[in-house]
Amino acid sequence: MPALEIDDLRVTYRGSRGDIPAVRGISFSLEPGDTLGLAGESGCGKSTVAAAVLRLLPADTEVTGRILVDGEDILTMSFGKLRAVRWAGASIVFQGAMHSLNPVHRIGRQIAEPIVLHENVTAEAAEKRAVELMSQVGLPAWRARSYPHELSGGQRQRVMIAMALACAPQLIIADEATTALDVMIQAQVLKLLKGLVSERGIALVMISHDLSVLADTCEQLAVMYAGKLVEQGPSKEVFAAAKHPYAAALSAAFPTVGDPAERRNPHGLAGDPPDPSALPTGCPFHPRCPVVMDECSSATVELRHARPDWRAACLRVEDRAATTTTTAMALGEA
Ligand SMILES: Nc1ncnc2c1ncn2[C@@H]1O[C@H](COP(=O)(O)OP(=O)(O)OP(=O)(O)O)[C@@H](O)[C@H]1O
């Protein structure tokens, strides 16, 4: 059974100046142990997808479609059931650790809290587990007695990661979870997450603006534009030779995987992402697209398979598939 199954998810915020369709029909699923990186420019809807999975969106937000976590329908379950799923079934690590921690409780107690809540263990046993988790994310045991304000931003972020791991969930969503950490700690935490997902069969959705981190950590890469997936496939291949021109431009702006010192030629993308409440007709990327054709401004462009494990929403997928194959053959990889 998939650890996470999202089927035609649509999320519309109610704004004072009208509705904002932030997510416009997204589907994907992850088996236990699968890792998916979700990328895209600011405002494309990545965090909205993350928040929808644990029903953390503002109350008046319209959400349709299906979200199944371990087979259970998140959107229709009772609040009591939802509380049981949060932390133990699925947990989220957001970037803003500062605001998520309780300022008046010590760190050790806060990490222990979800363990006490979900498992039949004493506070003492839970605090012992908390210290073990802290060492896994690179925090010394004595920090268990510190208060949040005594920690740096990076240390607080590691506390949040320890909390997310505390109840051994089947699904972890990391939303820019390591972005604020320095390079060494980021590498350490990413290695830890990678190790845990493969050892324990945890499914991981990692959201980041940094495509090279995603390609390095996740097996699959999904790229969003204007509330939709425009490409999803094996991450290293997508990163190296994306089939959607937006995903290609995004990849080109990041250092090559495995060699952060090398920067590929960024093809600068003109313009900004569209306002979700005033989207262009046809393919929403067409006004910025370097390979736009006449029909792109009117055609409805859905995801189509370039390969069984690779899909992209571009009328030119077949052209680009041909180009990629030719290049791979020239390099002796096909
Ligand atoms: N609570 C909210 N009320 C109204 N609109 C919102 C709300 N949260 C997000 N939005 C809008 O929904 C769209 C998608 O936002 P979202 O935060 O999901 O994007 P994102 O890709 O995660 O961006 P970032 O990388 O900046 O976090 C944006 O247009 C944003 O302004």
UniProtKB/TrEMBL annotation:
Membrane topology: Peripheral membrane protein
ABC transporter domain ranges (all copies): 4-251
Alphabetical list of InterPro entries matching this protein: AAA+_ATPase, ABC_Ni/Peptide_Import, ABC_transporter-like_ATP-bd, ABC_transporter-like_CS, Oligopep_ABC_C, P-loop_NTPase
PROSITE patterns from the UniProt entry: ABC_TRANSPORTER_1, ABC_TRANSPORTER_2
Keywords, ordered alphabetically: ATP-binding, Cell membrane, Membrane, Nucleotide-binding, Transport
Gene3D superfamilies: P-loop containing nucleotide triphosphate hydrolases
GO biological process per UniProt: peptide transport
Gene Ontology molecular function, alphabetical: ATP binding; ATP hydrolysis activity
One annotated Gene Ontology cellular component of this protein: plasma membrane
Region ranges (Disordered): 260-281
Protein location: Cell membrane
Family: Belongs to the ABC transporter superfamily.
NCBIfam families on file: oligo_HPY
Name of the protein in question: ATP-binding cassette domain-containing protein
Upper lineage: Bacteria, Bacillati, Actinomycetota, Actinomycetes, Jiangellales
